[in-house]
Amino acid sequence: MKAIIIGAGMGGLTAGIALRRIGWDVEVYEQVVENKPVGAAISLWSNGVKCLNYLGLERQVAALGGQMETMAYRDGFTGDTMTEFSLRPVVEQVGQRPYPVSRAELQAMLMDELGFEHIRFGMRMVDLVDDGSAVTARFEDGSTATGDILIGADGARSRTRDYVLTEPVERRYAGYVNFNGLVDIDETIAPATQWTTYVGDGKRVSLMPIAGGRFYFFFDVPLPVGVDYERSRAKEVLGEHFSDWAPQVHKLISMLDPFAVNRVEIFDIDPFDTWVKGRVALLGDAGHNTTPDIGQGGCSAMEDAVVLAIALQTNTLGVEDALVRYQNRRTARAGELVLRARKRSDVTHAKDPEITRAWYDELRTEDGTGIIRGIVSNIVGNPLG
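Request: output the structure for the sequence above.
Response:
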């Protein structure tokens, strides 16, 4: 049996590894000419790590992961600690520690594991045909690829999704812009083993440790969509948005290389339940594009990959039936995570300023119990327990 996978992001690569693990032939087609991941890093919460462990990648992902022992919120203007607590209860409740990781390094590891001979770059799919016995993708260069199934892991602007749903889906702007990148750890800004977030006025500045003595940082700024931006002015722009913030934030801005700062306007898509049409199925952002506010986008794609492989391996009524069973196991959970992230985004970024101010007040009395409960609730219910 052969699978055509459209998209060599984390979801597509993980799906390729999972399907090869159960004996399928796999070809992955990626439209970019070379591997250039979007975003500097990713939060791999315990459910995502478990998926990679299940695929035999426990050692590799642990080597990429930062040691995140504690979590803290700080007042963005004064730098004072609002709450600080251990993340150990998360690990004890779910059975696996989380790992913030470099997106580029994770993607490179997944490509190595799948094998570059199974990946073709510079291949933009323009059409697909399912004749009932096989599915064929046609690419911009005129070439084609045929398999028993086609998995659309082609991201938030998925062409495969348009085919499955028969019409385009509108993406919803979440109301903020995320600036992100990597810097060397500096403990005058935040402890080396802590996830530290500065908050105020609907903005946030966050730092998470990853391997190699580096912080993954991001700045969130509520802004209209489509604001003009010059990458060379990243430090100046951030300095303006955070002009009255704490000295630690200004020190972080001073450390940045403007040309290494990514700027991403954040969108999501309303959840939907149709992921499958015949021998074609959606996976990852193509099926459940989410904001990054609970760190579950990549993890949810990895869950998709594991469930897809299990469905194809354990059901024997044909691939169309197995794909529907995959869909039925995934849509409710993935959609719920999208809505949780949207709700958290609205609170964090002051969609209603009164609600956000109340959240800041809650943080000042928080001992970690409520935040840990929320993190664990996102992890439990995953396909690997």
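The chain has 13 helices and 18 strands.
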